[in-house]
Amino acid sequence: MSAAHDGRADRREDGRENGQRSGAGIPARFAEAFGDWVPQAVVFDCDGLLLDTESVWQRTEDLVVARHGARLLEGDADLLHGSTIEVAAELIARRSGHDEQEVLADLHREFDRELATGIRTMPGAAEILELTGQKVPLGCASNSWLSSLEEKLERGGMREHFAVLEASDTVERPKPFPDMYAAAARALGAAPEQVLALEDSGTGAQAAREAGLRLIAVPVGGHDAPPSDLTLTSLTDPDLRAWIASW
User: Which candidate, 247, 191, 212, 197, places its Cα nearest to that of 19?
Assistant: First the structure.
C-alpha cells in the first residue's frame, strides 16, 4: 500500500467520511452530475483508461483475426472492446472455424510480444491517480488476468497507487457482470453507492453501473460513450482535477 493511503484515517477523523467537502470551487457540470456527493473510494479501469494497452490489444486482435482468416460481423468490434481474452478467443474461433484454445494461445503470445515493446500511460492518468490517491483509497478493476494486470501496472509505474486489484480470475464473472466492482468496493471498505468508477468501455461501464457505483466515462476515440453520470473526453480535463481537489 502506498503512502497516499496512509491518510485515510485522518480523512475519517476530519469529518469528510460523512460526505462533507473540504473546499469549494466545484465545476458546474460536476455539481450538476454529482451534487454534494463525495466518493469514499475510487476504482479505475486499466486498459484504455490508465494505460494505452487498447492500441496494443487492437494490433494483437487484428493480427490474430487475419492469421486465422476470421470474418468479423457488425457489432463484433464493440463486443471485443473491453472483453476478456477468453471471450475474444471464443468469438474469433467461431468466426474462423479454428480451435478456440489455439486462438487463445495465439492471442496470449502476440499480446505479450506487443507489451514487451513498452507501455505508454494515457494523458493525465498519472496526475489523476496521484490526486485521487491523496484523498481516498484506490482500486483497479480489469478484465485482464491478475498476473497480467500486475505486470502492466508495474511497467506503467502505477502499481503503488492501488490498495486493491480485481481481475477476471479473482471473481466468478468478469465484466460486464458487476462482480468485479462489487468486490473492489467491499475490499476498499465502502458500500457500492459510496464508490466512483472510471471506465472507457461499455463493457466496463455496465459492470460498474450494475454494481451500484457512480460512474465517469472516458471513452476511447472511435467508441461511443457508454451511459454514465458524466462523460469526459480525457483525464486531462481541468474540471476533473478541480472536482477532486474539492473532496
Answer: 247
Looking up cell 511497467 gives 155
pLDDT digits (tens, 9 = 90+) for 20-61: 444 468 999 999 999 999 999 999 999 999 998 877 777 888
d(CA 197, CA 168): 17
CB-based burial, 206-232: b 16+ in 10 Å, e otherwise: bbbbbbbbbbbbbbbeebeebebbbbb
* Euclidean distance between CA atoms 194 and 3, whole angstroms: 22
In this prediction the pTM is 0.76
> CB neighbours (10 Å) of residue 25?
9
The reported pLDDT for the residue numbered 75 is 82
Q: For the chain, which domains are there?
A: 3-52+120-245 (3.40.50.1000), 53-115 (no CATH)
Task: Look up residue 238 and give its three cell numbers.
Answer: 481541468
